[in-house]
Structures are given as structure tokens and as C-alpha cells.
Design goal:
By secondary structure, the chain is an alpha/beta fold. The chain contains 12 helices and 5 strands. The structure holds adenosine-5'-triphosphate and magnesium ion.
């Protein structure tokens, strides 16, 4: 058996695990398991090998083979989930560390993990204080909870511009690329202020890079969709409209409620 398999050769949905690369249970472990269960080790290992090479669907594994494979892979999912939640815990601002995802947030997370290039980005729109940032981080928590190893980065737009400001060092390009090509990017507070010509150009470059690569993003803004072009430029607004499914967050400023 190979040590690793590609994303194409396991029936992730059939096994109930998120897509990704997994270390296969080694042949000795499979044989031992078969022996302990009083089964033929050769046939047991062969059935698993056939599944890895796409010749035996999950439905044609015996219950013991299925359970063995699923449990071995599930252990890796559990490890990744723990790592992803640890990453979430150390990279999320304290205020949003306990943001709990709702059903639509979990649904988007499941879709983005299963098919990152075919999932529309998220545009969270709403007035000041309704919970856009909170919601954005709750979606990232939902992604972590799937146990997927998808990497994400989060910036407020203001911090993004600070990170990408023109400078004369060799790392500037790789810093830009690490953000622009991040498998999942959260940009909070897009269009909060009218952009300078430089910021508009950087925003265009970044959004266009992600647009062309079909990379999923989460954006928040308190600018109404029809007015986004006026703050971030029409080329950016047009791409965001095509890339994103929109979630309107309604309600009052939660900060005022807190201070009452
Ligand atoms: N669903 C929620 N449950 C509990 N607290 C929430 C929820 N959503 C937001 N909050 C809290 O309400 C406050 C405002 O939320 P948040 O900062 O996400 O708003 P926002 O829409 O991003 O505001 P702004 O437009 O000013 O950036 C925060 O203290 C946040 O923790
Ligand atoms: Mg916010």
C-alpha cells in the first residue's frame, strides 16, 4: 500500500471524512486487524488496496473493512480538527474567539472544504455593530471544526494595506503572494473608507488574483452593494459581485445594547 493517497482515490463522502490527503493505514496494521477479527489478511489488504485505486467502492467493502478504514482516517481527522482549532484559538482576536457558527455558516464551511474552487465567496453586509466580524470568525471556526487542513488568513482591510505597503525588500512579493494565494482569506471591513489610488490598485490586484484562481474568501463590509464601487473601485466591486454569495446581517448595533 502507498503511504499517501491523492484526493481522488478515497470516497470521502462515503467514508464520512472531509476531502484531503490522508496517510493510509499500513498493510501490517490491516493484516493484524484482519487476523484479530478472524478474517483472511490477504483478502482484507487486497480489498483496501482496490478501494484506494478506485476499483472497489465503499459499498463493496465488508463492514469490518469499512469500519477499520473509516476509524483509521477518522483519527487523522480528529488530529487535524484539534490542530485547526488550536490554530483558530491562537490566530483569532480574543473578542471573537468564542464566535459560534450558525447553520448557514456551517453549511458554507462544509461546501468550501469539499470544493474550495467551486464555492462562492462570502460577502457579509450590514451596518455598524450588527456582528459582521463576529460572523466571519464564526465561519472560520466552522471550517476548523470540519477537521479540514485548509489554511486561512484574516486581516482587516486596514491591516492588509499596512502589510502590503510599498517597501523595498525582497520579502514584499512573497508576503503579497502568501496573502493573495491563501487558500481561504478573510478580509474584514472592506470599503470602510474611500481608497487612495494605491490602495485601490492593491485591492484590485489582490481580488483579481483570487478571482482568477477561484480562491474562496470571506469579506465583510458596511457599504451597500450598489455603493461598493464608489469606495473600492468599479473593477473590484464587479468581481466581488460575481465571486460572492451575499449574506445580509440585520439588526441594531450590538455594542449599544451592551453599554445600556
Ligand atoms: N451573534 C453574536 N452573539 C454574541 N455577540 C455578538 C454576536 N455578533 C456580534 N456580537 C458582539 O457584538 C459586538 C459587535 O460585533 P462585530 O464587531 O462583529 O460587529 P461588526 O458588524 O463587525 O461592526 P463594524 O461594522 O463596526 O465592524 C462585538 O462585541 C461582538 O462580539
Ligand atoms: Mg467589524
Amino acid at each position: 500500500m502507498n503511504k499517501h493517497i491523492s484526493t481522488l482515490t478515497l470516497d470521502h463522502a462515503g467514508l464520512g471524512i472531509p476531502p484531503g490527503r490522508y496517510a493510509l493505514p499500513g498493510e501490517p496494521a490491516a493484516r493484524l486487524h484482519a487476523q484479530a477479527a478472524g478474517l483472511d489478511p490477504d483478502q482484507f489488504a487486497e480489498h483496501l488496496r482496490e478501494h484506494y485505486t478506485g476499483r472497489r467502492p465503499v459499498a463493496d467493502l465488508t463492514p469490518v473493512e469499512f469500519t477499520f478504514l473509516r476509524d483509521e482516517l477518522q483519527e487523522q481527522v480528529d488530529d487535524r480538527r484539534q490542530q485547526a482549532l488550536d490554530y483558530f484559538g491562537t490566530h483569532v482576536p480574543r473578542r471573537f474567539a468564542h464566535a459560534e457558527p450558525d447553520a448557514p455558516a456551517r453549511d458554507w464551511a462544509a461546501r468550501v472544504v469539499a470544493a474550495p474552487h467551486d464555492t462562492q465567496s462570502l460577502l457579509l453586509v450590514g451596518p455598524v455593530g450588527v456582528g459582521k466580524t463576529h460572523y466571519g470568525y464564526s465561519v472560520l471556526r466552522a471550517v476548523a471544526e470540519t477537521g479540514s487542513a485548509i489554511k486561512w488568513q484574516a486581516y482587516t482591510a486596514a491591516n492588509l494595506y499596512a502589510a502590503l505597503r510599498p517597501r523595498d525588500d525582497r520579502r514584499a512579493d512573497s508576503d503579497y503572494e502568501s496573502i493573495a494565494h491563501s487558500p481561504l482569506l478573510f478580509v474584514d471591513d472592506l470599503g470602510a473608507a474611500k481608497l487612495t489610488e494605491w490602495a485601490e490598485e492593491v485591492t484590485y490586484r489582490l481580488i483579481n488574483d483570487r478571482y482568477e484562481r477561484c480562491l474562496p474568501s470571506i469579506f465583510t463590509t458596511n457599504v451597500l452593494p450598489g455603493q461598493l464601487g464608489a469606495t473600492v473601485g468599479d473593477r473590484v466591486a464587479s468581481r466581488i459581485a460575481e465571486m460572492c454569495e451575499r449574506t445580509a446581517l440585520k439588526g441594531t448595533d450590538r455594542r449599544k445594547k451592551v453599554s445600556k
